[in-house]
Amino acid sequence: MENKKQEKVKCLIIGSGPAGYTAAIYAARANLKPLLVTGAEMGGQLMQTTDVENYPGYPNGIMGPEMMEDFRKQAERMGTDIRFGYVTEVDFSGDLHKAVVDDDYEVLADTVIVATGASAKWLGIESETRLNGHGVSACAVCDGFFYKGLDVAVVGGGDTAAEEALYLANLCPTVHMLIRRDEMRASKVMQQRVLSAENIKIHWNTETVEITGDKDVDSVIVNNNKTNEKSEIPIKGFFVAIGHKPNTDIFTNYLDVDSEGYLITKPDSTKTNVGGVFVCGDAQDKIYRQAVTAAGTGCMAALDAERYLSHKEFMATQEADVV
Ligand code: NDP
Asked: Atom of ligand 1 at shortest distance to CA of 187?
């Protein structure tokens, strides 16, 4: 972290999903003059969502990207310095916390709010990597259009997979859902929607062996884990929707994480094991993972940061009085 341009802020927020923007709105209104560094995907996971029908305040629903634009505008109007950039390194060992942005400049912050969210998980097979961008995708909303009129497969049985399958069912003749157990993890309402869609074909107890194709996807070879029978399904698009991994790798030298990499908070707070560093949203939440809960914890993180700073400033005046 040597020889880089430095700037000092009271509050650095890392991440621009509902958690980060809400933290920014509260921190800015508390006069912490926050700097928010967006991360590679400005707006976070909701940028890849279509209709959001469960965020209070939007009686007719809203598109995910539009909602995040509203969040951004509100954070900016309150006075947040929003910068597109990616935090590549942190150092939480001193009194002032450090973060390197884009390997270019260094921010020194009294408080840091981590709101880095989570990213899509992959199966980890060779053909998935090789054909990524050539038929393999983790985002139906982003890439589904390219498969209009073609058959596709979706892996996973959670709400994300159900949502992706339903989206694709509007574009594709047949959507094959590959589910590794004999039941889905998705909410009942999403299961019902999937099961009643005429062109979604569910393959229970089915695991992906390999995706075939030289330049583009031609088919997927699957294995039924009950009968151990393999079969080949011709498809042109292969969508992976098997959950998410928290984006916490750059923090693990300093912050406590659980076995899946989620940052651990102290009870009833957003405090981490390092004073002045707080975490909100999906980076610490593997249970609820909703936009509204992420926003709620973003608010909590800003309040915790503000209290931490007030206390620190009060202690500094006490020490000055003693001297
Ligand atoms: P989930 O963890 O809920 O589901 C993951 C799915 O992928 C499960 O069916 C799981 O199977 C399967 N899976 C995991 N690993 C593999 C693998 N290696 N091979 C094959 N299948 C695999 O993740 P989601 O992203 O679906 O949802 C995350 C959270 O976000 C949930 O709380 C969900 O409710 C929420 N959500 C809400 C939405 C909404 O309200 N509109 C939309 C999307 C998500 P198994 O069950 O066997 O583990």
From this structure: 34
Best residue among 177, 180, 288 to mutate for probing ligand 1's pocket (most ligand atoms within 8 Å of CB) is: 180
Residue-range definition of the domain harbouring residue 90: 5-119+244-322
pLDDT tens digits, one per residue of 16-63 = 999 999 999 999 999 999 999 999 989 998 887 777 888 999 999 999
Does the pLDDT value for residue 177 go beyond 70?
A: yes
Nearest ligand 1 atom to the CA of 156 is 7
Mean pLDDT is lowest, of 46-50, 54-58, 251-255, 263-267, for: 46-50
Residue to mutate, 119, 242, 293, ligand 1, most ligand atoms under 8 Å from C-beta = 242
Pair 211, 62 in one domain: no
CATH number of domain containing 136? 3.50.50.60
Largest interatomic CA distance in the chain: 79
Q: What is the pLDDT of residues 105-122, one digit of tens each?
A: 999 999 999 999 998 899
Which atom of ligand 1 is closest in space to residue 49's alpha carbon?
Answer: 42
| Residue 280 known to be catalytic | no
Q: State yes or no: pLDDT of 85 exceeds 60.
A: yes
Together in a domain, 198 and 230: yes
- Residue range 138-158: average pLDDT? 92
Are residues 144 and 105 part of one domain? Answer: no
Nearest CA owner, ligand 1 atom 9: 157
Is residue 139 scored above 90 in pLDDT? no
Q: Which of 210, 240, 270 is the last residue of a domain?
A: 240
How many angstroms separate the alpha carbon of residue 242 from the centre of ligand 1? 5
